[in-house]
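Annotated sample (chain length 447).
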Amino acid sequence: MAVKIEGPLKIISLQAENIKKLVAVEIAPDGALVEITGRNGAGKTSILDAIWWAIEGAKHVQAAPIRKGANKARIKLDLGEVKVTRTFNRGKDDENAVTTSIIVENEAGARYPSPQKVLDDLFGVLTFDPMAFLREDPKKQLAMLRGLVPDVDFAAIDKANAEDFAKRTDANRNAKALRAQAAGIVVPAGLPDEPVDEAALVAELEQAGEQNALIEKRKANRATAEQTRDHLTANAAALVKRANELREQAAELEREADERLKEAQDLTVKLENADPLPDPVDTASVRERIANAAAINRGIEARERRRQIEGRAADFEDEAERLTAAITERKARVEAAIKAAKMPVAGLGFGDDGVLLNGLPLEQASDAEQLRTAVAIAMAMNPTLRVIRVRDGSLLDDGSMKLLAEMAETRGYQVWVEMVNTTGRVGFVIEDGRVASTPASRREKAA
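Output written by the structure step:
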């Protein structure tokens, strides 16, 4: 059977028997503000629970819904086009075991199959209490309000943002560390583009050493030749002298002297015709160049190392920017979805850690602004069944109660308010699980 509802629903009447502390009550609201009053423990909370147990099903029912001493309990809720009857039965063998059943009918009395599904499809979330919302932690308020934005997976977005935020934090930390590491590397000014070939300079030094050694050897050979020449010359003179003295040996000695003189003359010719010795190579300059090359190459290595580190730092910075862009894009999508969702209060929005009103945390708004916002949210969450509950009505001052009544009247809602009041002159007065008086009964009595 298709469920067709012509207009918004309100509670026309509530009947509850043996629900928690209630014995038997019947309430027929006659205004937008339905005040349930009485002393603590009189059964006020049981009335509000009965309404939501009837509609939202067994998953919200407490462990002991039936009044102590009774075996059966019943809730009848007349919503005009829809009538709901929920019953509870205590188990015969186990009094703690409770079963429940539900009947949902239309105005003509026709029953709907799958009654709980009918209620779920019609009404959605009904447990939103404006006062309870205002007492919640800002993050929990944010989670509750997100229900007003359709087709946005806030959990997935929060998870993605958290992951990207952690990655961005790591990337920025790594980039900062690498930048500091790079800054600590000293690179001399005026370095050439390419490293100096130190091996070539060492080879050049070795070649210069070999050449200088050869020069020294040739110099020593010439000194030896000069000494030999001088010795031969002196020896020849001595032999000539001896030849004069020893004529009998003159021929032999003269021959020997001629030979030695000839050798001396040959050496003289060689010495006279020998190429001049080259100047020794200045190895000090080569050694200085090698030392300079090592310093230059260390600088170039430092420059390259710093360049590599700065490149890695830049990569991390690019990654951080990409993650920031992803987070920003997701926030933009959420903001667009929030804007498209048409928030129930102008200026209502989502921050990272809570609900915002006109760009500021909701908790910074005035009490009246907070109450107006919370009630508007509750109304937006309940467009079909225009019934809102407020458990802690005792916390509301006269101004807040007036605001609550005005909003309910103006927007066509019914607000059920539970409050402690012992005067017996306000709203539906509950005593010992029964209705002691109603606004109508007190008016009749006064008349």
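Annotation: The longest helix spans residues 283-340.
Annotation: The domain at 13-126+382-446 is CATH 3.40.50.300 (Rossmann fold).
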